[in-house]
Amino acid sequence: MDIVVSVNSDNFDEYIKMRDEVQNLLNAAYARANFFMKTIENEKEWSGEAYKKFHVYMELITQYQKLFSDSDEDNPLQISREADMNFRNAVANFKDNFPEYKTLEELA
After folding, report:
1. Which of 36, 65, 70, 89 has the largest count of CB atoms under 10 Å?
2. Domain extent at residue 46
């Protein structure tokens, strides 16, 4: 199922706020996964095959969480953040520097 987000000038700031909230939740999820991973490594209460399997599983989960956190500079929301700011700057530049836009705005 695809999720489609429609963003326009009326809800752009709301979109930015929601995107940043999602990033904060992803950062918190990574921090929790990392903390849990370190806890199971340091406590040594498990051993044998069960520990190995769970440890590998948690390593994968932690790596996955890192991909979406601010700890990874290539995370999708960071790329989105940069694109959003470029978009915002381009729109502001267009509105400020093109007299044709001002004429259209006056007609509206």
Report:
1. 65
2. 22-72
Instruction: Note whether 30 and 65 are within 8 A (CB).
Output: yes
The SS3 of residue 10 is coil
1, two tokens: 């199922």
**Alpha carbon distance, N-terminus to C-terminus of the chain:** 38
Q: What is the pLDDT of residues 28-55, one digit of tens each?
A: 999 999 999 999 888 878 788 988 998 8
Say how far apart CA 88 and CA 1 lie, in whole Å: 29
Same domain for 90 and 67: no
41-75 as b/e, with b when 16 or more CB fall inside 10 Å? eeeeeeeeeeeeeeeeebeebbeebbebbeeeeeb
Angle between helices 76-97 and 99-107 (to 10 degrees): 80
Over residues 57-76, mean pLDDT? 90
